[in-house]
Amino acid sequence: MPDAYERLVVEAEHRGHKEKLYSGVSAYLARVRDFIGSGRCWIDGAMTHRADDSAATRLVIYPNSWSDLGRLSEVRQLEILSLLSLSDVIVGAPDPYYVEDLHPLGGVIKAFLARPDQEEFWTKACTGDGTSAAGRGFVEVSW
């Protein structure tokens, strides 16, 4: 991530905001590595674009080995869900209520676990129309 820091934070227009985002993304990816031994992550959104403070950073995580995830204990599989964006959530306590979308770090990050066959979908989502020529793009980091 040092190269990403240089390009996305040091050279950024809103450096203070980008510093906060970078810290959150770095801590988040450190936690992801606790579950996923090796993989790559596409970083898109507020971290890579000129955006206001209300924009979220999207992370698309591609594990190198899906079988590693399948070998996690049931408890660990539930723990990894807390790192991902969830839709249509019903919270049961203290009183039941419905949450349309739930994202890590209070919504600053929108995180998704992607299968290899979803790469075309996520490329289009992260670049606007499927090509970086649209002026948008993403940063890829590997571990």
Description:
The chain has 143 residues and is α+β, with helices and mostly antiparallel strands. It contains five helices and six strands. The strands form two sheets. The protein has a four-stranded mixed β-sheet, sandwiched between helices. A hairpin with a 5-residue loop joins strand 3 and strand 4. Helix 1 (2-10) runs antiparallel to helix 2. The longest helix is centred in the first third of the chain and has 21 residues, at 15-35.
Order of strands, main sheet, comes to 5-2-1-6
> Which percent range fits the helix content?
25-40%
**Could you say which structural class the secondary elements and strand pairing correspond to?**
alpha+beta
Q: Which percent band covers the strand fraction?
A: 15-25%
| Count of extended strands | 6
- Span from first to last CA? 9 Å
Order of helices and strands: HHEEHHEEEHE
Described by strand count, sense and barrel closure, the largest sheet is: 4 strands, mixed
Taking all Cα atoms into account, the compactness measure Rg is 16 Å
Low-confidence runs: none
How many domains?
1
Gross morphology: globular
Task: Please report the number of helical segments.
Answer: 5
**Overall pLDDT, averaged?**
86
